[in-house]
């Protein structure tokens, strides 16, 4: 049996970090340094060019993720301020990208009250806080405004708070991810 043995004679467990939402790590920088070093030592234009290409890709990803939130607007709007039990209220979500850079992916997780179901969407409810999450995925082009409409079924009486919204986006390769928490409350 080949391989490194960990404590107590067992092999170390390998795992995929499901909480990590980016593909970038320090390994990419180490890879660039190793490729550059080997390319210079053995005088290989291919390895040096590969290292330069990876470095350009990392720089491109960094610039894209830094500029993603500039000129981005998110709005949540209800058709009514008040509703009676049994009525439906229209919920409109709007995303407006006011820049040349397209957003190849935009993920919005909006906090909603668990007691009011949203039509055509399965809300994921946290049992300890009784707060549900409305998850929407968008692909917004340059200078594009998108709107999605949902119906909120008012099945219970009460005063309900909505928000905050967690907005995340990044470069098209998925190397770098940025997240912003927009705190605007309605209700």
CATH architecture title of the largest domain: Sandwich
Q: Give me the secondary-structure category.
A: alpha+beta
Radius of gyration over C-alpha positions, nearest whole angstrom: 23 Å
In spatial order, strands of the major sheet run 4-5-3-7-8
DSSP E strands, number: 8
By CATH reckoning, the class of the largest domain would read Mainly Beta
For the sheet with most strands, the description reads: 5 strands, antiparallel
Q: Helical element count?
A: 2
| Share in β-strands | 25-35%
Assign the CATH topology of the largest domain: Immunoglobulin-like
Average pLDDT figure:
79
Uncertain segments: 1-19
Question: Helical content, roughly?
Answer: 10-25%
The global form is: elongated
Q: What oligomeric state is this?
A: single chain
- Secondary-structure element sequence? HHEEEEEEEE
What distance separates the N and C termini?
63 Å
**Total separate domains:** 2
């Amino acid at each position: 049996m080949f391989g490194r043995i960990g404590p107590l004679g067992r092999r170390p467990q390998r795992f995929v970090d499901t909480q990590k939402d980016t593909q970038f790590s320090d390994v990419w920088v180490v890879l660039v340094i190793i490729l550059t070093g080997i390319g210079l030592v053995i005088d290989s234009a291919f390895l040096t060019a590969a290292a330069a290409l990876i470095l350009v890709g990392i720089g491109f990803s960094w610039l894209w993720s830094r500029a993603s939130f500039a000129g981005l607007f998110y709005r949540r709007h209800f058709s009514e301020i008040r509703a009676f039990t049994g009525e439906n209220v229209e919920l409109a979500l709007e995303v407006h990208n006011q820049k040349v850079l397209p957003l190849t992916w935009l993920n919005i997780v909006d906090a909603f009250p668990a007691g009011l179901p949203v039509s055509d969407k399965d809300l994921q409810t946290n049992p300890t806080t009784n707060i549900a999450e409305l998850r929407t995925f968008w692909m917004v082009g340059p200078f594009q405004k998108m709107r999605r409409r949902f119906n909120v079924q008012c099945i219970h009486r009460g005063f309900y708070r909505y928000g905050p919204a967690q907005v995340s986006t990044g470069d098209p390769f998925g190397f770098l991810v940025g997240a912003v928490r927009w705190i605007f409350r309605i209700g």
